[in-house]
Write a structure and sequence with these properties.
- This protein is α+β, with helices and mostly antiparallel strands.
- Helices cover 27% and strands 35% of the residues.
- It has two helices and four strands; from the N terminus they run βαββαβ.
- The protein has helices at 18-27, 53-63; strands at 5-12, 32-38, 43-48, 66-71.
- Strands 2-3-1-4 form a four-stranded antiparallel beta sheet.
- α1 (18-27) runs antiparallel to α2 (53-63).
- It is globular and about 30 Å long.
- The N and C termini lie far apart (31 Å).
């Protein structure tokens, strides 16, 4: 059984309308356990069994956001 790991992504234009759309899209994936958007910093934390960068790119585009990059935990405040 695969263990979950926390991944961090920087998303531009993340707001209170787009965050729930991205969260629900990612929660529909089997490998995703939890999604926590941080609106103030534009960071989305994803607890998943694998990296979901490609799926997040699509979800962000649909929600009207711009996927910037994947970031490391030490870069997140």
């Amino acid at each position: 059984m695969a263990r979950t790991k926390t991944y961090y992504y920087l998303v531009d234009k993340l707001n209170d309308q787009s965050a729930p759309k991205i969260r629900s899209a990612l929660k529909a994936l089997e490998s995703v356990e939890d999604v926590r958007p941080r609106l103030a910093s534009g960071i989305i934390e994803v607890d998943a069994k694998k990296d979901v960068e490609q799926e997040l790119k699509m979800a962000a585009e649909i929600a009207g956001c711009i996927f910037r990059t994947k970031v490391q935990k030490k870069q997140v405040r």
